Amino acid sequence: MVIKMRVLALDTSSNVATVAVMEDDLLLGEYILNHKKTHSQKIMMMVEQILSDLELTANDIDIFAAAVGPGSFTGLRIGVATVKALAHAAGKEVVSVGTLEALAYNVPYAEHIIVPVLDARRNNVFAASYIWDGEFKEIGEPEGITIEECVESCGDFLETVFVGDGAIKHREYIVEKLGDRAIFPHGAALNPRASSVAAVAMEKAKRGETQSYLEMKPHYIKKSQAEKDLEQKEKGENK
Questions:
Q1: What is the C-alpha to C-alpha distance for residues 122 and 67, in angstroms, rounded to an integer?
Q2: 101/87 Cα distance (integer angstroms)
Q3: For 51-70, what is each residue's pLDDT tens digit?
Q4: Strand pairing report for 63-67 and 93-97
Q5: Of residues 130, 140, 4, 142, the one with CA closest to residue 60
Q6: Using CA atoms, how far apart are residues 194 and 203, in angstroms rounded to an integer?
Q7: Is beta strand 17-23 parallel, antiparallel or unpaired with respect to 93-97?
Q8: Stated pTM of the model
Q9: b/e map 158-196, b = 16+ CB within 10 Å
Q10: How far apart are CA 104 and CA 162, in angstroms?
């Protein structure tokens, strides 16, 4: 008897809200909404709709996965909280997937270095670098840097594939500095896709890299403004 693994994955780390269900290597369905940032209103509706359309329930899912960061602080909290609630209700485990890792997975078996770039406002970005070298490998860990630093770090690469909303926003600058060495895939590969989160999660689950829903948490590279304000308040009270 062949046992299949079903993964439900979502990504709410940017302006895009996306949900997907995979069964082994087969993508059963994927919804992508890139219209306003109303994740708290939309994401659970999208989950319910895709499960209904596939004639599945949360109990039919084996693994729940979320893009855990870096990204929008509010968006990450919404996505992680949603997956934790689903996994808790269904009594299933979860898989945490890096947002940048999943973005790079949008470009399977690329011949060049892949640099996912997420907009972090004020000319800052979240970026990392990956390569397909027999297998998918991280060669530069996620960090918060300026777009200038990001592009400068790509200067030694012969060619670089850029993905992510940061790559879209700063495309003109990237091309100005790197010229033909900068490659931008088609639009569907530029933005977050839950199918990529699901594919990475599937590989991690096969390696036993699952967690209890209690262990899943957002991965913040830099502190939110609320956290900074709280720290400043606490410092003032302790004086």
A1: 23
A2: 22
A3: 999 999 999 999 999 999 99
A4: parallel
A5: 4
A6: 14
A7: unpaired
A8: 0.91
A9: eebbbbbbbbebbeeebeebbeeebbbeeeebbbbbbbb
A10: 9
